[in-house]
Design a protein that fits this description.
Layout lengths: L3 H7 L4 E2 L5 H10 L5 H12 L13 H10 E2 L4 E7 L5 E6 L4 E10 L2 E5 L3 E3 L8 H5 L1 E4 L2 H15 L15 E4 L9 H12 L11 E5 L3 H10 L3 E5 L5 H7 L8 H15 L4 E7 L7 H11 L4 E7 L13 H13 L3 E4 L17 E2 L5 E3 L2 E3 L6
Parallel strand pairs: 1-2, 6-9, 9-10, 10-11, 11-12, 12-13, 13-14
Antiparallel strand pairs: 3-4, 4-5, 5-6, 5-15, 7-8, 16-17
Helix pairs in contact: 2-3, 6-7, 8-10, 11-12
The structure holds S-adenosyl-L-homocysteine and iron/sulfur cluster.
Length: about 375
Amino acid sequence: MRPLAMISAAASERVNLFGLERAALETLVQEMGSKPFRARQLMHWLYKRGEGRIAEMTDLAKDFRLQLEARCEVRTPEIVAVHTSDDGTRKWLLKADAAQAFEMVFIPEPDRGTLCISSQVGCALDCSFCSTGQEGFNRNLTTAEIVGQVWLAKRELGEGKQTGLPGERIVSNVVLMGMGEPLANFRAVVPALRIFLDDFGFDLSRRRVTLSTSGLAPQIYKLAQEVNCALAVSLHAPDDELRSELVPINKKHPIAELLDACWHYIDEQNGRSVTFEYVMLAGINDSCNQARALAALLKGHPAKVNLIPFNPFPGTPYRRSAPEVIESFRDELVGRGVLATIRRTRGEDIDAACGQLAGRVIDRTTARLGGKLMSVAVQP
Ligand code: SAH
Ligand code: SF4
């Protein structure tokens, strides 16, 4: 049996099966002269049984397996480093290419296991309080790299191995809240979401797959037509002036335009509500008046607010709001009829909390990335 890493090294020209949603896989197997149902069998092996070795997919005809091996590969991102927090949160540093890496985090809770995955290496949107944004943009992840994260995490966490029952889920929820802006990588993200939701894929319910966006309003309309998953929107301020400072994309798509897109999304999808993320920055966006203004924006709409205590990173000028300030902010919202919760911060000791994911330049050479000269020379 060859380990996956070996398969990957030998097969860079081949089609990575993790990059193909069901329709594309059906086309591929038909091109190879097989019936479309072979695609579903293949998906069953990949996603239900967690089998990455084509040779081991024993109910596929031998000829078909040989053909598949000649044209395709099953390749996940490579693990560069793993860190486990005192609270059980686990963070993987994954290799994107020779010089760049990105991160993925698993957060175990009593009633669920949430995997936070990345959609880009770095991010171009430059939010002032986000460590990923400060790093600049490197490149989009491919569909295979996005799907491969979930597959890899399940394997690393031993999903299905404890009782041997295929139904046992360690990863029950997937959130696109790691590095990157998923709607800026729309073409790769949509097929990945379809694989997460597909009965023959990871078979997650639409409420357990969440895409978080900083507010690319036109893409929210497009997403509503393409796929049915939960939507989280990073709002962070109740007025355009402050929001444009914190989330620069607001200058292009201001709050009113963004909220219209959100309500459209919920109508179109028959969804329950949009979650609005709001990072709590001391003295910046955490006053009672700002809570009232936020309540006025959202009241009467299908919305809930998730308050995120700011997670600091080296060089940031921001500070986290005090716990009692965050609680008063929540109470003000709830008192005005807007559902609000406070996110428990996890994995802080390993820099795995929201907004702390920065990836790494793996080698010590200076790389020219996305038009910016970057020299983040940190060894894993
Ligand atoms: N680009 C997407 C998804 C990735 S960021 C987005 O912006 O929504 C996931 C969440 O972490 C967002 O709500 C983001 O605003 C928040 N975040 C970023 N930096 C943070 C920090 N330093 N502390 C707390 N939350 C942060
Ligand atoms: Fe990008 Fe999201 Fe960070 Fe903003 S908060 S820089 S959109 S990853």
